[in-house]
Amino acid sequence: MMGEMLSAARTRMHRAAEHADVADELVARLDYPSETLSASIPLRRDDGTLLQLKAWRCRYDSTLGPTKGGIRFHPDVDADEVQTLAFLMSMKCALMALPFGGGKGGVQVDAHDLSLMEKERLARGWVRHFARILGPDRDVPAPDVATGEREMAWMVDEYAAMAGSIQPGAFTGKPVSLGGIAGRTPATGRGAMIALEAVRHKLDLPPGDLRIAIQGFGNAGSWFARAASDAGHRIVAVSDSSGMISHDDGLAIDALLKAKAADGSVTDLDQKGAKSRKSGAHILSHDCDVLAFAALGGVVTADNASDLKAKAILEIANGPIGPPADAPLRKAGIEVVPDILANAGGVTISHAEWVQNRGGLAWDEDRVNDYLRDQMEAAARRVTQMMDTHALDMRTAAYAAAMVPLCRAVSARGTCSDFGGG
Ligand code: NAD
User: Fold this and answer.
1) What are the residues facing 107 on neighbouring strands?
2) In this structure, what DSSP letter does residue 20 have?
3) Could you tell me the pTM of the whole model?
4) 28-83, pLDDT tens digit by residue?
5) Are the beta carbons of 372 and 190 closer than 8 angstroms?
């Protein structure tokens, strides 16, 4: 059965297909996931009790290559969310012209409740349950919410034990000492900044430095803040799960990073003139040029879209704007740099890690950063050209641009007309 979230997400692809020359066979192919495996993973807790955890891995579409996508540990994960995120990954990899399809995995669990040893047992258990559909040429997982380098280290290790050979290309986002790539952790935030600069001329923004607000100050949000601040922009507000902090003259990013690292919340920043609030929700209506979402999915709905005061939105998180909010935002003239472009720096460098592993190479961080810039700028050009050619908003143009390599790959295998159909 098709979940509500996936059903809503596909409407964006259908809208793009109407405007670009997309074969019906491709749309039909992308309408439903190719394969979703569900599992119930037993986890023996440190106190001896047993938890049965629901888990999934979706390989959404492999038209362009092995499927690729993260694994999240979160109490709200379900099959619908995993499939929707795998669909988004298919679009993102295609837009970035990577030889990958989209995948995603998840476990319905609150990782904060688990000890380190319990997390290790869960990570290894996840691999044992899904190994039959994984592999460097089949499906390549990576970190996502509440998983990171350490989980990938356990997972690649377990996979090697099962395969009977070292397979560094089976997972990305690994520690550098285990075949990971330099610069992967900052890549999403840095890539988002490159994307913003590359499409800025389409965003109706004032000249000069921008006033930027950021929801979420974890990996992606904090690296984006650093990149934006280094580029001379002002970060006027930041929120995390504990609250929000703002300053019209700009927050001191180095001090904010220290406060977050030491005390765990952005609200602990001690800066003269900074205003702190207990609820992070106010960031939605904060007066700014660019509002960057770097925390959760489903934040903006048709009901609260009119609260937004930003001139443009940068979707660093996956799916922060629900499809029903697209029309009100278009009407309000707020352009959205969509997730499949804005946060694609992560998978772009994951791809470089996979290439590095398969070639036995090690790129240095400068080479990684140059490659990231080239790839993000090229993808942004494909999107803005599509906007110009078909008079599309940026999200629809990004989906249409993503479908170009997918269409070519479908045509290369033959479509209806090649087989004598009408
Ligand atoms: P993270 O866990 O490192 O950080 C998440 C941040 O969001 C934390 O600062 C947390 O406090 C904050 N947060 C949680 N609930 C909040 C709320 N209600 N209001 C405000 N802030 C809240 O995660 P991350 O890796 O930075 O990922 C963030 C988003 O970016 C996710 O949607 C993820 O799928 C997406 N993303 C990340 C990457 C990557 O490479 N990290 C790549 C692509 C997409």
Assistant:
1) 55, 73
2) T
3) 0.95
4) 889 999 999 999 999 999 999 999 999 999 999 999 999 999 999 999 999 999 99
5) yes
Percentage of residues of the chain with pLDDT beyond 70: 99
Closest residue (by CA) to atom 15 of ligand 1?
A: 241
Query: Which amino acid makes up residue 129?
Result: H
Q: How far is the CA of 193 from the centre of ligand 1 (A)?
A: 16
CB atoms within 10 A of CB 160: 16
Q: Which segments within 200-242 are labelled E, that is strand?
A: 211-215, 234-240
Residue 331's Cβ-count burial label (10 Å; 0-12, 13-18, 19+) is exposed
Pocket-testing residue among 84, 85, 145, ligand 1, by greatest number of atoms within 8 A of Cβ: 145
d(CA 195, CA 94): 16
Helices and strands (H, E) in the chain, number of each type: 13, 12
CA-CA-CA-CA torsion sign (418, 420, 421, 422): positive
Handedness of CA 393, 64, 351, 146 (dihedral sign): positive
Which residues, in sequence order, are bridge partners of residue 105? 57, 71
